[in-house]
Amino acid sequence: MAKKRKPDFSKPKIKVNKTEDSFEEQLEQEEEEKFDTSKIYFNLPLLVIAGRPNVGKSTLFNRFMHKRIAITDPTPGVTRDPVEGTTFILGKPVHLMDTGGYKLTRSIGTMEAVMDDLVVEKTLAKLKQADVILLLLEASQITPEDEEFIQQLRPYWNKVIAAVNKTEGGKNQDFALNYMKFGFKELIFISAEHGDKIPELQEKLIQNMDFSKVTEGTEEDVPVRIALLGKPNTGKSTLSNRLTHTEASIVSDYAGTTRDVVEGTFRYNDREFKILDTAGIRRKAKVKENVEYYSVNRAIKTIDECDIVFLMIDAEIGLAEQDKKICSLAYEQGRGIIFILNKWDTQEKGRTPIKKAEENIRIMFGQMSYAPIVCISALGGDGIKLLMDTALELYSQLTKKISTSALNAALKDWLFKYPPPASKTTHFKIRYMTQTSVNPASFTIFATRPEVVPQTYITFLKNRIREDLGFDKIPVQLELKASRQKWEDRE
């Protein structure tokens, strides 16, 4: 692997605008700087946003990330798992994390109380890892949660920066000064929603971060992006935690535990992976809460952002109609997909044979006979090596590039062995073929009358590309365009 180099972060790339810019104006300003956000950075300072529920942590997180990642909703306690990502603040790359709200009062003995305890435990664990803690307070009456959480922060006091949210236009600033009694040297009054004083807050955050250890990666370091999708309670979070060797995702028997998309990273066979653990996707008729509606939308959106979909299927329950919809979206976008039969260790030997399960998948997903099926136990670890080896094989095919000369040599052979059907109404000639993109693997064939080429012949050509050119485990996109010119005659 190429040696990582240290980039120059000595000067901010953005001029701090002291006026209270709107979110859109700030985005336009940063876009004008043309930051190369596709680059990979290592050893980034970790900035953790923390505080009690409903103070605006997720809204501020989304503002810093320049897109809506964390779910924002008036319902307290929406964020459960830490939500994280890499962003640029004043031209410098930062690893940013949004945490669940710190709750003091919890209903003992209820499932919600168990979830609250797990959220608090997860939040406190992240404080130890943080390089800078952004404590977000609200311009309202000080609550017992505020007081107790501030006490929890005392061991990390030297890395705490306090900001008071919801003070747009100077609202309630005098009232918010009561927080000074806790010993803060400074309070920054902001509005995460409206953008008030965000540049001042960003300046303060950057001043307290150490960028001396940051290194810049190469193209080889770009991670393979995996989206974990499926119904609730199929073991997605368990698999994510096993692969990342962390407890980043909260695991519970309670369906709908995961709400936001939880990112994690790990290495396998000297390759970097990013895994996106998503909320379980249920049928629309069963989705009744706004929070779950947004969770499902975010989960589906990860198909846009990933290379490979891990579709988790509970071996005890089997397939569902929602699985078919997920696969259809992944297929349309040319994503690699692996069917994962989880909890296989719970099946009695001979009760549900692997062959029977595979047959059911092949029947339901007739167009995706190429997609691998892997049986695993996310809890016990069985089948994980095979799963990851398969993922690497799919990524290799997704990023494979075939030269135009090799493609047309293969096309000439296919046309000779299986000539196009000819008649007075469907007469056409296939001229040449090019590969137009990788990941997704997309090809274009030029023909004299593409509109009359039968679908059966297009399917034949797709199958030949997949089987003869090494794309046998991924979807292949094939487009036909009009051309009367032969490949050899082109300039």
Q: In short, what is this structure?
A:
The protein is of the alpha/beta class.
Characteristic terms for this protein:
Rossmann fold, alpha/beta, 3 domains, GMP Synthetase, Chain A, domain 3, 20% strand
Describe the structure.
With 491 residues, the protein is an alpha/beta fold. It has 3 domains: 23-216, Rossmann fold; 223-398, Rossmann fold (3-Layer(aba) Sandwich), CATH 3.40.50; 404-489, K homology (KH) domain (GMP Synthetase, Chain A, domain 3). It has 13 helices and 17 strands. A 6-stranded mixed beta sheet has the order 3-4-2-5-6-7, with helices on both faces. A 6-stranded mixed beta sheet has the order 10-11-9-12-13-14, sandwiched between helices. Strand 6 (160-165), helix 5 (173-176) and strand 7 (188-189) form a beta-alpha-beta unit. The radius of gyration is 26 Å and the shape is elongated. The model is unreliable at 10-21, 27-35, 70-80, 250-259 and 282-293 (pLDDT under 50).
Q: How many strands?
A: 17
The side-by-side strand order for the widest beta sheet comes to 3-4-2-5-6-7
Tally of contiguous helical segments: 13
Class per helix and strand makeup: alpha/beta
Which topology of the largest domain does CATH recognise? Rossmann fold
Element-level helix/strand string? HEEHEEHEHEHEHEEHEEHEHEHEHHEEHE
User: Helix content range of the residues, please?
Assistant: 25-40%
Q: Estimate the strand proportion.
A: 15-25%
Overall CATH architecture of the largest domain: 3-Layer(aba) Sandwich
Secondary-structure map:
Elements: H1 23-32, E1 41-42, E2 46-50, H2 57-65, E3 83-89, E4 92-98, H3 111-129, E5 132-138, H4 144-152, E6 160-165, H5 173-176, E7 188-189, H6 198-207, E8 215-216, E9 224-230, H7 236-244, E10 262-268, E11 271-277, H8 290-305, E12 308-314, H9 321-332, E13 336-342, H10 354-364, E14 373-375, H11 384-398, H12 404-417, E15 430-437, E16 442-447, H13 455-468, E17 477-482
Parallel strand pairs: 2-4, 2-5, 5-6, 6-7, 9-11, 9-12, 12-13, 13-14, 16-17
Antiparallel strand pairs: 1-8, 3-4, 10-11, 15-16
